[in-house]
Specification:
The chain is 71% helix and 0% strand. By secondary structure, it is mainly α. Belongs to the MIP/aquaporin (TC 1.A.8) family.
Length: 222
């Protein structure tokens, strides 16, 4: 039975808010206490993604990311009429989560905003590739041929963890426009905010094209 849209949107609002609470919340805790380290913050993002997939995936798909929703739509796996409502729900959840994180943050905190460590071009390239690889992994492991329950959540969360661990110091490893826009706007740290929208969207679409190429079958005559 198809899940009602209102149930899906509630799951996306809740899921994205929880992503911000534990993901960017970990960044704020590290900012204040230095108790987690960069590896701990990366682990927090990976673990919360696993929890969200296993708890909300059967309701809304646990996209919690406009780039993922865009990718699923472009791949023909998600109805176009639900794209904008999903994105709106994800943004609402991200802002709600960031507002709660702000309650524990000190004055001047970035609230876990993603900022380029060096130049914008480098950060754009990194975000493009990280989102490309994340979306490609998602498309591959959620196909009917490969999907194997818990292994799907483990693979996707491990990908987020790995990418946050390696790419985080350079670009913030956002891979998610909602995750970047909410803390940037609430904290006022808007440096190159556009790239955290454009690069993930482009990366997700590139993953869709690559996934189709990987699925090409040779002709009988070949």
């Amino acid at each position: 039975m198809k899940t009602l849209l209102r149930h899906c949107l509630l799951a996306e609002v809740l899921g994205t808010a929880v992503l911000m609470l534990f993901g960017t919340g970990a960044a704020v805790v590290e900012e204040q206490t230095h108790a987690l380290g960069h590896g701990g913050v990366a682990a927090a993002f990976g673990l919360v993604v696993l929890v969200l997939i296993q708890s909300l995936g059967h309701v809304s798909g646990a996209h919690v990311n406009p780039a993922v929703t865009l990718g699923f739509w472009a791949a023909g796996r998600f109805p176009g009429r639900r794209v904008l409502p999903y994105v709106a729900a994800q943004l609402a959840g991200a802002f709600a989560g960031s507002a709660l994180v702000r309650l524990i943050a000190t004055p001047g905190s970035t609230l876990g905003a993603t900022l380029p460590a060096h130049d914008v071009a480098q950060a754009f390239g990194i975000e493009l590739f990280l989102t490309f690889w994340l979306m490609l992994v998602i498309l591959r492991v959620t196909s009917s041929f490969y999907e194997q329950g818990l292994l799907v959540g483990l693979t996707i969360s491990a990908t987020v963890w790995l990418e946050a661990l390696v790419g985080g110091p350079l670009s913030g490893a956002s891979m998610n426009p909602a995750r970047s826009l909410a803390p940037a706007l609430l904290s006022g740290h808007l440096t190159a905010a556009w790239l955290y929208v454009v690069a993930p969207a482009a990366g997700a679409l590139l993953a869709v094209v690559t996934n189709r190429l990987l699925d090409l079958r040779p002709s009988p005559e070949a």
